[in-house]
Design brief:
The longest helix is centred in the first third of the chain and has 30 residues. The protein starts with 9 loop residues before the first helix and ends with a helix. The protein is built from three helices and no strands. By secondary structure, the protein is mostly helical. Helix 1 packs parallel to helix 3. 72% of the residues lie in helices and 0% in strands.
């Protein structure tokens, strides 16, 4: 029996590749700052009381790292064989989540 395979056009492949490149670069940026936030504890004075200097700051940073990894993975998998609207929705949603993780990581670093 013959299979009916939908072959994506080159424009569609380019759009998906661009969206995933955007998400992966955003994930690398947000993840890097989340790792810096987790390591900020080791640059604190012994008398410092900021969030980054406490175990809670490390826990928040670790949660951000897991969130970044989960977001990039979810967007990559969910956009695999999907339509244009779904690609745009997942890309915009993923970008919002990654921007939030980035801003939270910067906030934790700012308390060091």
């Amino acid at each position: 029996m013959a299979r009916h395979i939908r072959v994506p056009s080159s424009r569609w492949r380019a759009a998906r590749a661009s969206a995933l490149t955007f998400i992966w670069l955003g994930g690398l940026t947000a993840g890097f700052f989340a790792i810096l936030a987790a390591a900020a504890r080791y640059s604190c004075n012994p008398s410092a009381h900021g969030l980054a200097c406490r175990p809670a700051g490390t826990a928040v940073s670790a949660t951000l790292i897991v969130g970044v990894i989960a977001t990039v993975t979810a967007v990559t998998v969910a956009t695999h064989d999907s339509g244009r609207r779904r690609l745009v929705a997942w890309t915009v949603g993923g970008a919002i989540v990654l921007a939030t993780c980035f801003l939270l990581a910067r906030a934790v670093i700012g308390t060091a």
